[in-house]
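User: Fold this, then the next.

Assistant: Folding the first:
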Amino acid sequence: VTLVEQRTSFSRINQLHIWSWCGEDLRGLGARLIEPPPRNFGTNPDLLHISVNDLQKLLLKVALLLGVEVRMGLNYGGVRWGASGWEASLDVPQRLPKEGDASPRGSSSLPSQYSPGVLSGLAVVIGSGGFASTIGDNVGLRMVETESLRK
């Protein structure tokens, strides 16, 4: 299994509200930063929350322990049929350094030891870009919105 992540750091500070059964699963994976929300603003004390960056770090640690190859700082460029089956191209994202970015301006160094290139012999490609995902565009798959989970 290979995971490709465009970001080079886990810096998102948003809080996610999670169900108690999900919190128990995360605690089983080693999460220690799950707390009920403060009692002000009429919040439900049965809901738990965790920051996005803490959740990303936890899931990265679990993935590494399970032997997942993690490639950070690379963009998914699309899939194509190659000599050895399905291949995905990876490239360096074109971005300007943001405020608080630890990388020096003009730096082209990657946070992982893997260079951009091609992943070959793929069986499954899964994207997590939500409705903005373009993972299947170049092979004729498109996103179709049906019913929402919330009514």
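Now the next one, as you asked:
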Amino acid sequence: SSTAPGVGLDPWLAAFLCTPSAMADALIFDLHGRLLRRVAEAHGVHYQGLQQAARYARKRNEISNSFAKKMCMIDVTYNILRHVTRPSADAFAQELEMALSSSPGAGLGGSSGPLLPSSSGGAAPSAVQADGLDEPSPVVAASSALHPLPDARVSEL
């Protein structure tokens, strides 16, 4: 016999699990797993992620370029959701705020910001040095495997 969603759970947890954000996270996690397992099953190969699987399937002309790009976007989204923390999200938003409030034309200077936690485990450095120049953001071990596509739009999913 099945029970209604949220029955027997802490009321706060039940309320959180029913939010659109939690449902979207769950959809991405589920979709990522289903796609990765399906491609691995079809090829008899273990892939590190959807990007690697998409490249291989595209090379074999099993999927289109646009479908491969979507698989890559799902992989990037999945990896961000797995690693993002409240402090890293706040630091990323603060970096944008600082860039927008700085002198006109200064912009973000190509910095990706500390959206994912640093591989060193330490606190992320501030976005601006004392002299006002942009300091490079730490390279995240998880993001080194990610190669976002420049014109990819999540809305195309």
